[in-house]
Amino acid sequence: MAQQVKLGAFVLAGVLLFLVAVFFIGSENNIFSKTFTISAVFRNVEGLKQGDNVWLSGVKVGTVSDVKILAQGRVVVDLSLRDKQSQFIPRDAVASIGSDGLVGNKIVVLRPGVSKQQVGPSDTIRTMSPTDTQQLFDIARDVGENTRAVTADLRTLIRQVNAGEGVIGELFHEGRIARELRATITQLRVSGQNTAEATSKLNSLLTAVREGDGLASKLIYDSGYAMKLNASLENLRLVSERAEQIAGDLSAVTGKMTKEDNAAGVLLTDSSAADNVRNTLSNLESATDKLDENMEALRHNFLFRRYFRKQKKREQKEEEKREPASSKSY
User: Fold this and answer.
1) CB of 52 within 8 A of CB of 63?
2) Of the four, 23, 174, 286, 297, which is 20 to 30 A from 47 by CA?
3) For residue 127, what are the CA distances in angstroms to 2, 39, 75?
4) pLDDT for 219-247, tens place per residue?
5) Pairing mode, strands 74-82 and 59-71
């Protein structure tokens, strides 16, 4: 009886342990939970297999129920999710493949979206395929080779700099280029000072023009003065045109005076005609003198003496009439 009781207790304990294990394994694989299935299409699943976990915000919400290849670069993964977790998975959620730890099993990670609609059975959600591991290895190898090449070039550059070779080496060892660079910097400093001084003078000049009372200030800020200046320039242009016209007329008159087909030309160019004109003027003066003498003789002649006296009295009376009128006006 004791052995049979022990055997029965052992068998019962084994059955209980088996049932507990089945319960935990079933609950872990959603065997005893109500689930629904959605799909996700990846280009590369990186070793994802049936039974791997599905995580949402760090919480396991389901498992991978099936992995199928439809075509090259097109793998369909069916996700079996717990029905109670559907309210936290929007329709625009994104699925990606990650790792459970550094070298652990592959998992599917769900990233929630912003849609207000919940995901439903048989829906297909968006995916973000992982980078191929071989591509990562190739990139790492290329980076390593480039790093070695850069390191070698840097070592060569440092050796040349330490030896004073090249532009940088001369700069570090006070070579010819370093001296020229220092001289250039000095010249730039002097040029900057001169530029600052010229700028200061220019500012002073602009201030004087803006606040002064000179011609430049009036031309810039006084529109009336500018209009007067424009009018003066226009008058000057007209005077210049008229002077040019007068000069042309004078040139034409001078040209005519040099010809002998007119009186002025004859007087200027013919000396005999000028002598005749001079003699004529002399004769006129003589005739005028003789006429004055004849008039004086007529004044003293008894025949015309009375006439001249009457004329003199008439002139005196007219003069006396004018004098009182002129005194009244004063």
Assistant:
1) yes
2) 23
3) 63, 10, 11
4) 666 667 667 777 888 888 888 888 888 87
5) antiparallel
